[in-house]
Design goal:
Layout (H helix, E strand, L loop, with lengths): L11 E5 L9 H7 L4 E3 L10 E3 L12 H7 L1 E5 L5 H4 L7 E3 L20 H11 L3 H8 L5 H17 L3 H12 L2
Parallel strand pairs: 1-2, 1-4, 3-4, 3-5
Helix pairs in contact: 4-5, 4-6
Length: 177
């Protein structure tokens, strides 16, 4: 059975902690261009939204599609140096960590896990079948397409994974965990 076509775009939400250089902040640019909605306080994250949390135990995978389409995808934009502190308290919403991917942003290029907010949202969109929306948001930076090039095979496999165990098998196969 074919996957259903994605509905219109997924609502993207950004809670910005203002810990990074504003000139390099990918989430701020998403908001400025009208591609994401800002959230002023963490309690404003909708209860049903999926919060991309690098410290969450449960992994994001294709079955999260319906939830993301219904309630949105949220990122908490903070400095990687302060991520553990920022995510130590659980955010309202459904917290999920992304599968392992390689960063293409100039600050963390080639590093595993250390994605920008833009890369995190694009990866989640790709995994749930909203590939054109992922490409659209990545296009706001010259390096955006590089993210897809670096992670193309991984993203395709993650998108086909039927459960979290399959995602973890893919991670182990690629990264020798």
């Amino acid at each position: 059975m074919d996957k259903p076509k994605p509905s219109a775009s997924v609502r993207l939400l950004v809670y910005e902690m203002k810990q990074d250089d504003p000139r390099k902040c990918t989430s701020r640019k998403l908001v400025r261009l009208g591609l994401a909605t800002p959230i002023a306080r963490p309690h404003q994250i909708p209860r049903g939204a999926i919060v991309l949390n690098p410290l969450a135990q449960e992994v994001f995978f294709s079955k999260d599609r319906e939830q993301a389409e219904g309630s949105g995808l949220a990122v908490v934009d903070c400095s990687w140096e302060k991520a553990e502190e920022a995510f130590s308290s659980r955010f309202k919403g459904i917290n999920r960590r992304l599968p392992y991917l390689v960063a293409a942003n100039p600050v963390h290029f080639g590093r595993l896990f250390e994605l920008s907010s833009l890369e995190a949202l694009a990866a989640a969109l790709y995994i749930i079948g909203h590939i054109e929306q992922a490409r659209k948001i990545l296009s706001i930076y010259k390096w955006g397409s590089v993210f897809l090039d670096l992670n193309r095979n991984l993203l395709k496999e993650y998108a086909q994974a039927k459960n979290p165990e399959e995602v973890k098998e893919i991670e182990e196969a690629y990264f020798n965990l």
